[in-house]
Amino acid sequence: MTPRDADVALDWAATEGWNPGLDDARSFYAADPHGFFVGTWEGALIGCMSAVAYGDAFGFIGLYIVRPEWRGKGFGLRVWNEGMAYLGARNIGLDGVLAQQPNYRKSGFALAYRNVRYEGVASADEDHVDGVTITDALNIPFDRLLSYDTRIFTCERAAFLRAWLSQPQAHARAVAAIDGDAVSGLAVIRRCGTGHKIGPLFADDLSTARALYRALVSALPGETIFLDVPEINPAAVALAVEHDMLSVFETARMYTQAAPDVPLAHVFGVTTFELG
């Protein structure tokens, strides 16, 4: 893909109802410019897929779309094979719709757990949580934010994180929780075609996650909020439920090898279903 192709792919994702963020294409492409693939027919784009490599050991697949009129002809499989070949022997993850699990199993993926998308409405009375210090993430040296993100994501994604945190302020806001000199939480909210998505929402504990969530939504009363939660983390589910959010969608988190040693107790919101 070219950067312009990435914009087209995100437009397709919106058409599919995946509701991407308004600035997702730039951040996604920054993660690994070599990891985005398109299928063309006589110069026209007919399919796409992202296969982002995070170093030599891990990769993540997303944005696997074939235009409706070109489905069932084998073109999607050709794009898929290109992406899989690019990632090679890495452990590969994806968030797939549940109906596609059998097809992903045929390609060597195994279910690790489910991620659940929750939807709610930001309340005008959301407030900060006592005892938790929240600041604009851009006030924190990037290397400290990267260190915290890497500890939870389990591998470095510096190029992506830098782009993700610096999206236009009209479209996104990033906040961090600090405990003395240490970062104890990191969260981003971004505007989407419909409402706003929070992701990541990483925190050392439920109180910190609650403070981050409320800091992000407090300026958006009445707006629709989405949060993608690892079902395997009961505290994350509790956070969504206590804010009157309802489950509206779920994915199967799958890997080709053993699930990475992600500290899921600290994952209250997945960064993005497309890139992990």
UniProtKB/TrEMBL annotation:
GO molecular function ontology, one term from the record: acyltransferase activity, transferring groups other than amino-acyl groups
Pfam families found in the cross-reference section: Acetyltransf_1 (PF00583), Acetyltransf_18 (PF18014)
Organism ancestry: Bacteria, Pseudomonadati, Pseudomonadota, Betaproteobacteria, Burkholderiales
Protein name per Swiss-Prot or TrEMBL: GCN5-related N-acetyltransferase
SUPFAM superfamilies associated with the record: Acyl-CoA N-acyltransferases (Nat) (SSF55729)
CDD domains according to UniProt: NAT_SF (cd04301)
Domain N-acetyltransferase: 1-141
InterPro entries (alphabetical): Acyl/Acetyltrans_Enzymes, Acyl_CoA_acyltransferase, GNAT_dom, YitH/HolE_GNAT
